[in-house]
Amino acid sequence: MALLVVLFLTVAFVPFAASNSEGDALHAFRRSLSDPDNVLQSWDPTLVSPCTCFHVTCDKDNHVTKIDLGNSNLSGHLVPELGMLEHLQYLEL
After folding, report:
1. Considering only Cβ atoms within 10 Å of each terminal Cβ, which end of the chain, N or C, has fewer?
2. CA torsion sign, 63 to 71 to 45 to 21?
3. Mind listing the pLDDT tens digit for each residue in 7-40?
């Protein structure tokens, strides 16, 4: 019975872990940036979906398609984790 419960919990929560990989990518990007005006404060790594973050646009399937950070007074560098945003079509810095 215990094995069945563990199996159920593993299967039930796998989609949530996978769906937050885009949020993890945005959080890694945020950590690499200097943000003196705090424009990225809504990029909370505990959110289930990054689609509620300011400056982020998602498609109907909740995949990040656009990040618009133009004129945001940011500095820093791009991180490899941005490659996890497989549906990203537009990135303005």
Report:
1. N
2. positive
3. 444 444 444 444 589 999 999 999 999 999 999 9
CB 57 within 8 A of CB 66: yes
Amino acid at 65: T
6 φψ region: left (φ > 0), alpha (ψ -120 to 50), beta (else): alpha
Q: What is the DSSP string of 9-75?
A: HHHHHHHHHHHTHHHHHHHHHHHTEE-TT-TTTT--TT-S-GGGSTTEEE-TTS-EEEEE-TTS--E
Residue at token pair 């109907």: 60
For residue 20, CA distances in Å to 14, 65, 69 come to 10, 15, 21
User: What letter represents residue 57's amino acid?
Assistant: T
Domains of the chain: 20-92 (3.80.10.10)
Rounded Cα distance, 83 and 18, in Å? 15
Q: What is the CB neighbour count within 10 angstroms for residue 1?
A: 5
